[in-house]
């Protein structure tokens, strides 16, 4: 029986080639998109799930309570030792400290090569908590001795051209000889680690003293602490017990800490601590569902539209003895055949566009990720659901056709599905497309607002170059003078980092003037020399710039500090003393600068002080003339290389660095554009199929209208008017939905664009124009035809 259903289904589909092709192409695009989204979701859901005992691995994090609640994916450096020795909850506790931009020297083929590489300083138990196996398959990682390291096979190949490198030595930061004691297999892409060089924790004190000490007075996000808990631990009980630690070790500070345990399974999905917002995965999944739903709507609309012409076939089948369930399964078989072809073509489209998808999201998915039982189950589920949902409604409608009316030709369109159902489904299609277009426009406007709005400092024509931390003040001053002699360099400043950027904020406590207690809020430190505000063009609003000095005795602050302190004006700050960084900074406020954005637009402007302290500098910033950029950059590189021959020269334009803060949003924007285009394309295929049906149905009517004096414009309006009404109805439904969704998304931004009415009007108008273009060809084709030919059409 089933074989007979399939054979008849194939004949019917071949008979109606155009409609079959439209249905298959629409479903294929929907299927292909859903496959890519499935891969994307599977990729993110598989992060760090390969470790043994992963359900017992936790990261220790901090909730900071001051004038607002902050979240740090870290704890004070002393926490690990205390948790390990004073509590009995964990089998293993280990710290890891990430550091960027270290220079590694290795010898390959008799030549010394230099590499700039991120590294991690790890305690030995780290690799007993996590399962990152060595190349030999064992987990015998040894980092107990100082000046030892393990690297991945990828780094081994890069440094030495081979993987058998145990016992080899490389030079770290032109100073420390580090011996390789193990080679790890290449790390999976689905892990939180973003470095491939791991050095003994005992070497950390030479590069980051604060993180290496047993200190309770601060937090650096470079340091992360992990624990492998003993079985059957109560997390709430542990967190309650940890409440005593701040009282014991931080009794006087107003920055109250609450230490929490974050499961490894949610690290990747916890936006409070820098993870991916899980809402994004839901959005992707829903968009993928929408695309398949739109394709199913096309199928249902076209199938029910054709039901009128297949009514005699149904009547004959019923007269010859077919029951309702026979007819139902017959039409379901046709849907299955179409869906099967569509899913195969969709799979091909997904594979074809997979490289572009990988480039967009900076991930590495391959066809190999499709070769598993789980994906096969996904395909079977999608195929079954689409076949049933798309085919069941037309099948039910056709099986209910009364054979007598069908054979006498007395059926109306309401008897075969009616126009109401089709209109509802078309409205749903239009509503989804309008929502996606409006969302794309609003996301685009927010990104444009964030990148192009005045940040309070100059980010154009600024070049940032790293400098070694151990540079002497005299050498630095002489170097600046050499750079300033380059014709294209307008000014140069030494600084810790630029005024704004994800890596530029360093917060500390503050005691203001003669107030008896420290403030509840933190203040951000911007280390920069006397040329800092001139190079970045940060305006002074009161007082003066600090004088050139070797000690940090004078500082500049921003207007926000006066606001946080409750002062009437910024001038009241001038001449006042501040005590910051736990007493490490004691200086006089000599000037107030205009507020500037030290972070992205998701965060509010914070109080800032700018001061000169030589051992805090890690970058040089150049304001350059862009008329001869290449020559200027080459001269900067020559001077820099002459001064630091043992280091690697790299430069970045500041405006590009600022734009990188919105890299994730840029990707989502690109994806929303693609999905909007696909939704519109699938919808257009459905509209084209419907207009083919309607034109064929009303050919004689068009001929009569032309004979009675109608012109081409009247005929075109006849077909477009109904569709435009449906678009307007869809706009009424889509506008509040799109507004609510985008309003929720924009809540994540402290500084944001406004949602204007014209965004929704533009989305609706766009769908109208696209609809007009879609249906105009077939409509005009009939409208310009000879009415005699139209009237002869059967």
From TrEMBL:
Q: What is its main location?
A: membrane
A single Gene Ontology molecular function, please? transmembrane transporter activity
- Database matches in InterPro entries: ABC3_permease_C (IPR003838), MacB_PCD (IPR025857), Macrolide_Exporter_MacB (IPR050250)
Q: How does it sit in the membrane?
A: Multi-pass membrane protein
Q: What GO terms fall under cellular component here?
A: plasma membrane
- Report if keyword S-adenosyl-L-methionine is assigned: no
The MacB-like periplasmic core domain sits at 20-236, 431-602
Superkingdom in the source lineage: Bacteria
Q: Which residues form the signal peptide?
A: none
What are the protein's UniProt keywords?
Cell membrane, Membrane, Transmembrane, Transmembrane helix
Instruction: Enumerate the subcellular locations listed in this protein's record, separating them with semicolons.
Output: Cell membrane
Segments traversing the membrane? 21-41, 279-302, 327-355, 375-403, 424-443, 674-695, 715-735, 755-775
Domain (ABC3 transporter permease C-terminal) spans 286-401, 674-783
What this protein is called in its record is: Duplicated orphan permease
Organism for this UniProt entry: Flagellimonas pacifica
């Amino acid at each position: 029986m089933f074989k007979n259903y399939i054979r008849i289904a194939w004949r019917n589909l071949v008979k109606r080639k155009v409609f079959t092709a439209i249905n298959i192409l629409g479903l294929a695009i929907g299927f292909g998109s859903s496959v890519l989204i499935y891969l994307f979701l599977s990729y993110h859901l598989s992060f760090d799930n390969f470790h043994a005992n992963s359900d017992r691995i936790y990261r220790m994090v901090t909730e900071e309570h001051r004038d607002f609640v902050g979240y740090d994916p870290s704890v004070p450096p002393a926490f690990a030792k205390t948790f390990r020795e004073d509590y009995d909850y964990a089998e293993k506790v280990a710290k890891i400290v990430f550091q960027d931009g270290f220079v590694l020297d290795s010898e390959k083929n008799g030549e010394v090569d230099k590499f700039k590489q991120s590294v991690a300083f790890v305690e030995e138990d780290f690799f007993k908590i996590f399962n990152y196996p060595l190349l030999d398959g064992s987990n015998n990682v040894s980092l107990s001795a100082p000046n030892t390291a393990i690297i991945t096979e990828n780094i081994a190949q890069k440094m030495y051209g081979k993987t058998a490198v145990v016992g080899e030595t490389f030079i770290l930061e032109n100073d420390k000889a580090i011996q390789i004691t193990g080679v790890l297999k290449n790390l999976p892409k689905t892990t939180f680690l973003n470095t491939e060089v791991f050095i003994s924790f005992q070497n950390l004190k030479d590069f980051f003293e604060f993180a290496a000490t047993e200190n309770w007075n601060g937090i650096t996000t470079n340091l992360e602490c992990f624990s492998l808990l003993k079985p059957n631990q109560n997390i709430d009980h542990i967190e309650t017990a940890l409440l005593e630690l701040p009282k014991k070790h931080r009794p006087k500070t107003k920055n109250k800490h609450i230490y929490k345990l974050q499961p490894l399974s949610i690290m990747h999905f916890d936006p409070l601590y820098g993870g991916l917002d899980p809402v994004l995965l839901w959005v992707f999944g829903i968009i993928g569902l929408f695309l398949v739903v739109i394709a199913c709507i096309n199928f249902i609309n076209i199938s029910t539209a054709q039901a009128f012409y297949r009514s005699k076939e149904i009547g004959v089948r019923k007269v010859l003895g077919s029951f309702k369930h026979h007819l139902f399964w017959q039409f379901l078989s046709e849907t299955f055949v179409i869906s099967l072809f569509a899913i195969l073509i969709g799979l091909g489209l997904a594979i074809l566009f997979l490289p572009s998808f990988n480039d967009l999201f900076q991930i590495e998915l391959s066809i190999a990720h499709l070769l598993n039982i789980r994906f096969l189950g996904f395909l079977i589920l999608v195929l079954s659901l689409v076949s049933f949902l798309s085919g069941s409604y037309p099948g039910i409608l056709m099986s209910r056709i009364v054979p007598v009316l069908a054979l006498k030709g007395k059926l109306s369109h309401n008897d075969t599905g009616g126009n109401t159902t089709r209109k509802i489904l078309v409205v749903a299609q239009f509503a989804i497309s309008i929502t996606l277009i409006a969302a794309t426009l609003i996301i685009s406007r927010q990104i444009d607002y964030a990148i192009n709005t005045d940040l309070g400092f100059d980010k154009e024509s600024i070049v940032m170059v790293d400098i070694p931390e151990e540079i002497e003040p005299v050498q630095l001053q002489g170097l600046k003078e050499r750079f300033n002699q380059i014709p294209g360099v307008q000014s140069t400043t030494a600084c810790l980092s630029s005024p704004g950027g994800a890596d530029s904020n360093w917060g500390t406590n503050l005691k203001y003037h003669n107030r008896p207690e420290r403030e509840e809020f933190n203040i951000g430190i911007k280390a920069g020399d006397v040329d800092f505000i001139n190079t970045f063009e940060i305006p002074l609003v009161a007082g003066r710039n600090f004088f050139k000095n070797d000690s940090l005795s004078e500082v500049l602050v921003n207007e926000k500090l006066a606001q946080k302190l409750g002062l009437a004006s910024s001038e009241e700050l001038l001449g006042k003393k501040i005590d910051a960084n736990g007493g490490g900074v004691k200086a006089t406020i000599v000037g107030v600068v205009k507020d500037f954005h030290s972070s992205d637009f998701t965060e509010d402007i914070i109080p800032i002080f700018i001061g000169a302290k030589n051992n805090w500098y890690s970058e040089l910033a150049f304001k350059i003339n862009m008329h001869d950029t290449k020559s200027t950059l080459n001269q900067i590189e020559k001077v820099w290389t002459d001064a630091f021959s043992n280091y690697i020269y790299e430069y970045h334009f500041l405006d590009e660095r600022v734009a990188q803060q919105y890299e994730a949003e840029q990707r989502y924007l690109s994806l929303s554009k693609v999905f909007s285009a696909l939704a519109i394309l699938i919808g257009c295929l459905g509209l084209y199929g419907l207009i083919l049906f309607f034109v064929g149905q009303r050919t004689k009517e068009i001929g009569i209208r032309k004979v009675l004096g109608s012109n081409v414009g009247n005929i075109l309006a006849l077909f477009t008017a109904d569709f435009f009404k449906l678009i307007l109805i869809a706009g009424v439904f889509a506008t509040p939905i799109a507004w609510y969704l985008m309003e929720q998304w924009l809540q994540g931004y402290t500084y944001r664009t406004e949602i204007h009415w014209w965004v929704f009007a533009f989305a609706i108008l766009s769908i109208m124009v696209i609809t007009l273009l879609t249906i105009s060809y077939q409509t005009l084709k009939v409208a310009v035809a000879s009415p005699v030919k139209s009237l002869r059409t059967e």
